[in-house]
Amino acid sequence: MTKILVVEDDADLNQSVCSFLRRHGYEVTGCLLANDAYNALYNTLFDLIISDIMMPQTDGFAFAATVRKINQTIPIIFMTARDDFAAKQQGFAAGIDDYMVKPVDLDELLLRIAALLRRANIAQSKRLTVGSLTLDADAVTATSGGKEIALTAREFNLTYKLLSYPNKTFTRIQLMDEFWDADSNASPRAVDVYITKLREKFSGCSGFEIVTVRGLGYKAVLK
Q1: What is the DSSP letter of 161?
Q2: 92: which strand partners?
Q3: Which three-class secondary structure state does DSSP give residue 7?
Q4: What pLDDT sits at residue 44?
Q5: Which residue numbers in the chain have pLDDT < 70?
Q6: Please, are residues 91 and 99 in contact by the beta-carbon 8 Å criterion?
Q7: Would you state the pLDDT for residue 123?
Q8: pTM of the model
Q9: Do the Cβ atoms of 213 and 164 come closer than 8 Å?
Q10: End-to-end Cα spacing for the chain
Q11: d(CA 6, CA 60)
């Protein structure tokens, strides 16, 4: 299911947009602040982001620019009361893909979402290609040079997470919280075991490396 993140500090509008999109088949997470949205992004692979501009603590411009540094392809729509050209110019400079002025027609928002998802080729296929490795999230398969690399579901999810956010360091605790059951007795060092296995399995792949960040965790570095 396509996952959408809505970042809007007006609680009523946030709830309205989320409910509307859920009724149309999307899986939606609503956040009132950009800082909450950052945490959501680290824990979930979203397909599209809808964000306000005027928010406390961190505004939409800074939020979009930060997202774009770690994910160059995810579609971002600004949904804002600001109708001035300077705001639009700053938004597109920060890396957004579309701009809608409040009050927003939700049916039009739906059309724009569908168009952006088509362009991003997300509605049809969730594929991530880094160097010689291609990950297919729908089929949960990894291939390199036309040959499939056997991965468990957890190994696949760990790899997809790291490669979706190149140069972003994930702590062992973050990875444990997302990919191990809450009642698991495994220690954070279990992550080390999985990373060692992944390095062995991807030893013949080009274009990336899973790097240890001493004292913290791991990150994927593109070559």
Answers
A1: H
A2: none
A3: strand
A4: 86
A5: 121-125, 182-184
A6: yes
A7: 45
A8: 0.59
A9: no
A10: 31
A11: 12
